[in-house]
Structures are given as C-alpha cells and as structure tokens.
Amino acid sequence: MTVEAAKFPVSHPDRQLTCQEAVERDLLEIIDKANMHGWGTVETMDAIEDVLRNIRLAYSEDPDPAEEPILDARLFLHPHPTDEG
C-alpha cells in the first residue's frame, strides 16, 4: 500500500479532498481483502470506523507517542544485576 505525498500546503482548500483520494485506494483494498477472508463489506466498514474512532481518542490523549521512550520487553524478562539483591 502506498499513499501519495501531499500535493498542497496545509492552508490549501483542496488539501483535505486530495488526502481522501490518497487514502481511498488503500481503504478499498483493505475492504476487498477483508471480503476475500470472509468479512462482509458493511461490517468491515463499521470496524474501520471503530478503529479510527479509537485511534482518534488515543491521539487526543497523546498526539505524539513517538516522543516517549520505547521500552524493550527484554528488559522485563531477565533480572538485572541490581534486582538480584
């Protein structure tokens, strides 16, 4: 899946429309793949809407999670020398 680069600056009146066009092909591909795996079109669209709603809520709480440090799960699997006492 490839989304085309933005063609207009943020202030351009057609920017939102071109963004919709840029993501539409990939969304239709997702729906098509879901259909091929036994999911209905409407239930897939409903799921996409729910996922987007959840992403929007998470974004409103933390607009840039990339700024936070990534914790490596391996840190929690083995005791550290200071943990052994």
Separation, N- and C-terminal Cα atoms:
51 Å
Low-confidence stretches: none
> Per DSSP, what share of the residues sits in E-state strands of 2 or more residues?
under 5%
Q: Give me the count of strands.
A: 0
Quickly count the helices.
Answer: 2
What is the arithmetic mean of pLDDT?
83
- What kind of sheet is the major sheet? none
Shape: globular
Keywords:
globular; single chain; mainly alpha; 2 helices; about 80 residues
Structural summary, described in words:
With 85 residues, this protein is mainly α. It has a domain at 14-56. Helices cover 51% and strands 0% of the residues. It is globular, with a radius of gyration of 20 Å. The relative contact order is 0.07.
Summarize the structure.
This protein is mainly alpha-helical and 85 residues long.
Q: How are the secondary structure elements laid out?
A:
Layout: H1 15-36, H2 41-61
